[in-house]
Amino acid sequence: xxxxxxxxxxxxxxxxxxxxxxxxxxxxxxxxxxTDQGRIDFAFETKSEILxxxxxxxxxxxxxxxxxxxxxxxxxxxxxxxEKPPKFIILYDQxxxxxxxxxxxxxxxxxxxxxLRTYSIVDVQELYKTxxxxxxxxxGIYLGPx
Length: 146
Hints:
By secondary structure, the protein is of the alpha/beta class. Helices cover 45% and strands 25% of the residues. The chain has a 5-stranded mixed beta sheet, sandwiched between helices. Helix 4 links the parallel strand 4 (86-93) and strand 5. Helix 1 (3-12) crosses helix 5 (121-139). The longest helix is centred in the C-terminal third of the chain and has 19 residues, at 121-139. It is globular, with a radius of gyration of 16 Å. It starts with a helix and ends in a 7-residue tail after the last helix.
């Protein structure tokens, strides 16, 4: 599954997303929001902060790892106009990220006070099937097998 499809599923299954992020989400502030520092995958408001989420599928090579950390470092430069402080999260696929890169992500997150969370691509694939079944029921259009 590509990142945009994973994002589509996660945003339609907020209960799973909340569980993976470990926080109660109040409302979605935006998705695929373009700034001078890059495109924010999605952001949510919580009771006490703004969560800016960098979503990643498997981080399995140096280029993907460097791109991910570069994105988050640029997000930290954004001047958010909000009463609540921003908090940055990297949410990545645990099955397709080797331990070496998971450790590098952990080191980066500790160094820059970034939250690090994982999701399961297997879970997302199952949720995707459920989303398609619900679409078929509500729209009456057969979308084919997932």
